[in-house]
From TrEMBL:
Domain of life of the source: Eukaryota
GO molecular-function term, one example from the UniProt record: flavin adenine dinucleotide binding
Protein name according to UniProt: Flavin-containing monooxygenase
Gene Ontology CC: endoplasmic reticulum lumen
Keywords of the record: Oxidoreductase, Signal
Residues in the signal sequence: 1-19
GO biological process: ERAD pathway
Pfam families per record: Pyr_redox_3
Membrane-spanning parts: none
Length: 248
């Protein structure tokens, strides 16, 4: 039976920090050993090398703090290697403001991070009002490299726990232990929030959408959600669809 209505669901994304405890049964969270050993100690542990993690790292570096940034990807800002799926940012990059005041211009630059290096501005990387997502990835990696930020890539952290002595301890995917006084979680949007409801098995989540317009031609499309990604998709397909309904 042919389905006349192409149903599309854009799922919200949620943050998942802890996950299943891989050490359950072998290391108890109140084990005395966790109060006597401090493997790979850093005062600050930042999890995630996206815009938030890198901005925090800049201030920690500038203040000469003892810190490390853990990033599960092979480079900075790897989230933006896939998202947004239509590869255009929706954050402003207004190069020509008619003003020379740096503070005024920064208010029209929604992508740049703060630093003392004026070459590290997104307006130096693209003149497009909505830059390509790939440009942001390049910018974030240059930001981390040029400012000598201490980022450890290919490190997926799990089992974050607080010890009796007040320190935090965690492990990477190779079961190497790390200890720190402060943990800053900067993972941002981590996992899709798949909503279960009657008919949800007939929907297509945002992360699996095709950019091919052929499946949408002449169809009625229902978009669940009215956030940024919802409007992004609606704008992409509106030229070939019969009707688009958005529900929040």
């Amino acid at each position: 039976m042919q389905v006349s209505v192409f149903v599309l669901v854009l799922f919200c994304l949620c943050l998942s920090v802890y996950g299943k405890n891989k050490h359950e049964g072998s290391i108890k969270h109140d084990d005395p050993m966790l109060n006597t050993e401090t493997p790979n100690y850093k005062e600050y542990c930042v999890i995630g090398a996206g815009p938030g993690g890198l901005q925090i790292a800049y201030y920690l570096e500038s203040s000469e703090r003892d810190y490390i940034v853990f990033e599960k990807g092979h480079g900075a800002g790897t989230f933006y290697n896939k998202f947004p799926i239509h590869r255009k940012l929706i954050s402003l990059n207004k190069v020509y403001t008619g003003k020379t005041n740096k503070e005024f211009n920064m208010r029209h630059d929604w992508n740049s991070l703060l630093s003392n290096d004026e070459s590290l501005l997104m307006t130096k990387y693209s003149e497009e009002f909505f830059p390509p997502a790939d440009v942001l990835v390049q910018y974030l990696n240059d930001y981390a490299t040029k400012l000598n930020l201490k980022v450890q890539y290919n490190s997926t952290m799990h089992d974050i726990l607080k010890r009796k002595d007040g320190l935090f301890q965690m492990w990477d995917q190779h079961n190497n232990a790390y200890t720190c006084k402060y943990v800053i979680v900067a993972t941002g949007i981590a996992k899709p929030n798949h909503i279960d409801f009657p008919g949800s098995d007939l929907t297509v989540p945002y992360e699996d959408l095709t950019l091919d317009l052929k499946p949408y031609e002449g169809k009625n499309v229902w978009i669940l959600g009215r956030g940024n990604s919802a409007y992004e998709v609606a704008q992409h397909i509106m030229g070939v669809t019969n009707f688009i309904a958005m529900m929040a």
